[in-house]
Amino acid sequence: MSRAADLPTGSSAQVPESAHPGRWWHTLEDGRLQCDLCPRDCRLHDGQRGACFVRQAAGGAMVLTTYGRSSGFCLDPVEKKPLNHFYPGTAILSFGTAGCNLACKFCQNWDISKSRDMDRLMDAASPEAIAQAARRLGAPAVAFTYNDPVIFAEYAMDTAQACREAGIRSVAVTAGYIHAAPRREFFALMDAANVDLKAFTDDFYFRLCGGHLQPVLDTLADIHHRTDCWLEITTLLIPGENDSDPEIRALAGWIARELGPEVPLHFSAFHPDWKFQAAPPTPAATLSRARQIAQEAGLHFVYTGNVHDPEGGTTACPHCHTPLIVRDWYRLESYRLTPGGGCPECGHPLAGRFGPQAGDFGPRRQPVHLGPPSPA
After folding, report:
1. Apex CA 80: angle with CA 78 and CA 82, to 5°?
2. Which of 1, 208, 228, 331 is the most buried (most CB within 10 A)?
3. In the chain, helix, strand, coil percent, each to 5?
4. What is the extent of the structural domain holding 54?
């Protein structure tokens, strides 16, 4: 891990000890640095941080201030990401850092993603240590989650490479707000991704997230068509904001048309949080209605989340409709795939990544401590 002493000197700003050389930036004519990682295109004077808060101009270069430091590690069921077609029933070692490059008023992880307090970063771990911890804990995959891994891309990519060398898979849980060049490098190292498609109007993205829709659609298309990364999509439905029948129909239709009917789509329930308290919690009936609309639009695998809905958690064969994987929350109630990942009744192959049998990790969540707190 590069330390502050290895970085360009000459900055009058205080650079955290955990700073690491950043990528994807260039110098403007007026001396400012432009970050080229995401569509925000932050232009920074020396010492300034980007909108994500973790990328900083220092001494004529861009640095990542949270490399090697996490807000905490936890063993989760892979279904919690959510990923329903990626080695069901297995454990995944999950972690995030601090900060975010979107400004969603309804953020469900605001205490981490909106943190400006570097003391929140409790665990220190190198990419190699994370990969070895996953092996030691019996987790076949590592997830970059809780906040968006796009903003700590260098750390996530180095960790994914270390995981690949150790036989561990890597998963990104992300809003997909990233420019094309870093996007291709980033997702080339990921084995799976769940991308948060927050709505299907630019007005929603601009008004409630401080971003735009098109870059996210570009990310979805890139992942599905130009990488080997398995893709699933999540949309948090907020009453009165993105839950109308026409918008759900347009969103599902775009996925079916541009990505294909076998990309799984998860509709999850909103609860009032952070700066968005006006809307009520999402009724279960709204999720069921959205699921039906998306299925009518041609999607084969549509799920409901954050509610108790066994039907909305079941994976059925798209050919003969036999229930293949029945879930109750994050618990697998039954698993009927052939060793090759097909339907035992008709032989139709199920889209996704499957082992010869389901995992048995269960629905529990287990906090894990990897190392001593890293100094700020």
Report:
1. 85
2. 208
3. 25, 25, 50
4. 1-65
In this structure, the answer to whether residues 159 and 264 fall within a common structural domain is yes
Instruction: Kindly state the average pLDDT of the residues 136-161.
Output: 97
Residue whose entry in the numeric block shows the structure tokens 């308290």: 277
Q: In the prediction, which pLDDT does 371 show?
A: 65
Q: Rounded to an integer, what distance in angstroms lies between the CA atom of residue 330 and that of residue 78?
A: 8
Residues 60 and 200 both lie in one domain? no
Q: How many CA atoms lie within 13 A of 148 on its CB side?
A: 26
Distance between CA 361 and CA 186 in Å, rounded? 28
Structure-token pair, residue 45:
């004077």
Q: Provide the residue type at 221 as one letter.
A: A
In 227-313, where does DSSP find H-type helix? 245-254, 284-296
**Are residues 114 and 44 both part of a single domain?**
no
- Annotate 17-65 with three-state secondary structure: CCCEECCCEEECCCCCEEECCCCCCCEECCCCECCCCCEEEECCEEEEC
For residue range 348-361, list pLDDT tens digits in order: 999 999 999 999 99
